């Protein structure tokens, strides 16, 4: 290295991450000019200017870092010191947290408290668009900042981001797409992969990509969260990364099995709608509180909503919740209306999202999911039975604020026969170490 350039290379650590690669490129070009004896004063001045501007931006971002406050009632914050120490010491940390632990909103705040989010963004991925938007709104509220300032989000067809962001919520698909243009993810100093146990194709690709990236980005921190026993597998994939377990904050949930009495498969959808109406009637008699119904997809939600309206439930508001719903209609679910509510949702409400006021859950035991067909080489939407882990997640939705009741529209033998973790959606060839 040319002696004149050594101080400039040393100043790189005081610049924003996203500026370092372009400056390094200019430094290498300058080194070649010096070796060849070419004039270099202007190039040297340009690089010094770039370093100064980047250092000024970094200082401003450090000064603007919010000072988070932490609700000690949340289980994750009772382990905040352990989590902070693990994140500071290790490049990868696995957080295994049950429903209601608060990990989704508190982990970015713990990272901010450690000074992350200044040199680069804290990237926080969610499996679904609706979750990314709602988590961003909640996190911005907890940090006393308008959405789009400290916290921004980016999903397909919609974003609210700016240069002032320290935390960026997005779907895992958005981060994967960004890796095509920024293969070292230089815009980020921290990546949080939330709900990794869902094991979508995008999540699996991200986990493989990040493992390959980490040796090239020793400054990058990665936090992977899982709500299931898959946590140990994630740890093995990342070469023995530490696993921090966080308990959930849930009240007792009574589970009732009300299997469909279907004799003809052609009548199954109609029987399901009738069973939901019967379950709603049963739960309405139990006392106050809103009801969350899990259905496979948008069509089933619309059909069930129509069926419930014909049933003429007095003083009850029926609300749909699915990914393609307009933002305004989605927000209605999170605003109290003064009426009792029946929320008809896909599995978007299974994790990350907390629908307020839910005391009762009706679980059809089904979900419409993307599966990759190796034969057709495309992903296909299929209706499948959910796993035991997903069923427990759904039941946990009604134990967040008080004791709850979950009605499963299938029998206990069916539940026990289902696989414990979420079924893999990607052929077990890549990343191979993850499936070992």
UniProtKB/TrEMBL annotation:
Coiled coil: none annotated. Residues 84-247 form the Helicase ATP-binding domain. One of its GO terms (molecular function) is hydrolase activity. InterPro entries: AAA+_ATPase (IPR003593), DEAD/DEAH_box_helicase_dom (IPR011545), Helicase_ATP-bd (IPR014001), Helicase_C-like (IPR001650), P-loop_NTPase (IPR027417). SUPFAM superfamilies: P-loop containing nucleoside triphosphate hydrolases. Keywords: ATP-binding, Helicase, Hydrolase, Nucleotide-binding. It comes from the Bacteria. Gene3D superfamilies: P-loop containing nucleotide triphosphate hydrolases. Residues 271-436 form the Helicase C-terminal domain. Pfam families: DEAD (PF00270), Helicase_C (PF00271). PANTHER family: ATP-DEPENDENT RNA HELICASE, ATP-DEPENDENT RNA HELICASE DHX37-RELATED. This is RNA helicase HrpA. It comes from Chitinivorax tropicus.
